[in-house]
Amino acid sequence: MPKTFTDIPLTRPATPLLDSIHAPADLRRLAPHRLEQLVDELRAYLLFAVGRSGGHFGAGLGVVELTVALHYLFDTPHDRLVWDVGHQCYPHKILTGRREALTSIRQRHGLSGFPKRSESPYDTFGVGHSSTSVSAALGMALGARQGDKDRRTVAVIGDGAMTAGQAFEALSHAAHTRANLLVILNDNTMSIGHNVGGLANYFARIWASKTYIALREGGKKVLSAMPAAWDFVRRTEESMKNMVSPDMLFEAIGFNYIGPIDGHDLDELTATLENMRDLEGPQLLHVYTTKGKGFAPAEADPVGYHALNKIEPKAKVEVAKPAKAKGPKYQDVFGQWLCDMAERDPRVVGITPAMCEGSGMVAFRDRFPDRYHDVAICEQHAVTLGAGLACEGQKPVVAIYSTFLQRGYDQLIHDVALQDLDVTFGLDRAGIVGEDGATHGGVFDLAYLRTVPNMVIAAPSDENECRQLLYTAWLHQGPAAVRYPRGTGPGAIIEDNMTPLPLGKSRVLREGKGPVTILSFGALGEAAREAGEALDATVLDMRWVKPLDRDAILGAATSHTLLVTLEDHQRMGGAGSAVNELLMDEGVVMPVLNLALPDEFVHHGKREALLADHGLDAAGVERQIRDRLQRLDAALPNRA
Ligand SMILES: Cc1ncc(C[n+]2csc(CCOP(=O)(O)OP(=O)(O)O)c2C)c(N)n1
Ligand SMILES: CC(=O)[C@@H](O)[C@H](O)COP(=O)(O)O
Ligand SMILES: [Mg+2]
């Protein structure tokens, strides 16, 4: 049995066997009896490294044995191994030549927190958004049919990721194509305890049927002893399955289902994978694991230890809690607002696609359970569920990360906006998110929402503005989105009262005497204000991206020689684009400086550092405005 640790080692543990593994080929040279030691050393190093770097934690601990077994039995990277979501990939990265680099994970210029094709040939597919692994692996398996026919393809997908529609689309197509594909369902439902949806209950039921496992145990022992009798025993197994779990979901789809087996029992894992490795057609191996396995506090609190904060040497182990924050996190401002609204109005319904904690909805879940819906990783469904609720006169609020709303974009257009239904979107993680990097960047929502008729979009500049604009958006009859960033704000005083703000109207942050007006959209308001002080510029907190405050913009245009727009979003299609369009429509020709993100992906690092990298901090804003003014002076020497 694997070792269980109770503390995070603050100094590097001795890992002599692990240190000899520079690539899976080294691992595959080990005798089987060495693997247990490797597992313990790998887990010890993982604890140490994530303690140093912070990052995703529980999921990786849960797949240490599985990762060792897969790289041991499959000829990676020739055989393709695709991880779903990818937050569990740290053991994979350690075994594939990135052991020493692991302490740089999620840091600027360090390893990505997810598999990334440009980082390693062993990272066969870039992930971060869940439920893509089976589709990608199927593509690779079908690609192998055209070329390298002996290549094997494996997808490792969690029980949560398996709840998303795309996973079933891919399973169904895999069965149709009869592709040689092994899907490993990494099911830690029992350790999580609160996954939602029929699928979670389904898995739990299988797990609970001890009879099934006992029968399986017997069957498998026969299997491993008598490979030649595989077909005969298999027919026995079929009847056994029907006897114990008639509704074998995956068999019904067309997969050969094997399991469930213990994903921490290396002997069982390797024996079963060896049996399955060269089976023809779509195979599904169901393994049970414990999220946080091998670290007692994480086993006890797998949700809390989903991610770990970087541990300062003297600090005790902490789950991912923020460093000293100026004020509440925006997610908690949202959560408090939602509870306050639910108290006032019975029509409030809260919806989250599997991000209850991250969206600040724990209190709402506990206080208003009958108006709370965690729909699992089903963003498309979450949006249309909101539309359906609105049809019945409810006032649904869909709490969803900006990046994950991308999954429900058609539903937003087709089901909500086109029917002008009254759904409010709390768009968290809007803007640069930081350590999660490009896969999670919330930097496209203004572009993808602005273009949708009937949508209104607010971008609050601080915590109180967030509360008031959420209230205003919720009161608005029709689809409304309020975007706010990951983490904390500038520490504004949050008023208990909620006051509807005028739709499409901005507010003046400072009146300046200089030639510049800064139009600030959203959470960079402090940077705008500081740069405005240095430049004696007028600074407007625009509050709304759609509709724009036309009068304020045209007023600024007539009284200033340079308009600056500032936003935490891609330049293309963002708020600055909206201002440019307005000026063009009004026939106003004047210098405009759009400060936003360039047409490239922003990779992982600290949010504040990445904003500064892109000139979106106060110094960067001031610098760019001064540069532009100098260029204007040079171009228009008699500029007033
Ligand atoms: C499309 C999408 N929605 C939401 C998330 C956020 N998310 C990351 S991990 C996770 C849970 C995944 O559960 P599971 O697949 O069972 O993996 P486990 O964490 O249990 O190992 C979620 C919802 C995501 N990465 N992608
Ligand atoms: C892997 C994944 O998608 C989530 O765990 C995500 O990393 C959570 O992001 P936050 O830490 O911003 O809640
Ligand atoms: Mg899981």
TrEMBL record:
Binds 1 Mg(2+) ion per subunit. Binds 1 thiamine pyrophosphate per subunit. Keywords: Isoprene biosynthesis, Magnesium, Metal-binding, Thiamine biosynthesis, Thiamine pyrophosphate, Transferase. It holds the Pfam family Transketolase_C. InterPro entries: Dxylulose-5-P_synthase, THDP-binding, Transketo_C/PFOR_II, Transketolase-like_Pyr-bd, Transketolase_BS, Transketolase_C, Transketolase_CS. It is an enzyme of class 2 (transferase). One of its GO terms (biological process) is thiamine biosynthetic process. Pathway: Metabolic intermediate biosynthesis; 1-deoxy-D-xylulose 5-phosphate biosynthesis; 1-deoxy-D-xylulose 5-phosphate from D-glyceraldehyde 3-phosphate and pyruvate: step 1/1. Its cofactor is Mg(2+); thiamine diphosphate. Mg(2+) binds at residues 159, 188. Its EC number is 2.2.1.7. The keyword Repeat does not apply. GO terms for cellular component: cytosol. GO terms for molecular function: 1-deoxy-D-xylulose-5-phosphate synthase activity; magnesium ion binding; thiamine pyrophosphate binding. The keyword Transferase applies. Residues 328-492 form the Transketolase-like pyrimidine-binding domain. PANTHER family: 1-D-DEOXYXYLULOSE 5-PHOSPHATE SYNTHASE-RELATED, 1-DEOXY-D-XYLULOSE-5-PHOSPHATE SYNTHASE, CHLOROPLASTIC. HAMAP family: DXP_synth. Belongs to the transketolase family. DXPS subfamily. Catalyzes the acyloin condensation reaction between C atoms 2 and 3 of pyruvate and glyceraldehyde 3-phosphate to yield 1-deoxy-D-xylulose-5-phosphate (DXP). This is 1-deoxy-D-xylulose-5-phosphate synthase. The lineage of its organism: Bacteria, Pseudomonadati, Pseudomonadota, Gammaproteobacteria, Oceanospirillales. The gene is dxs.
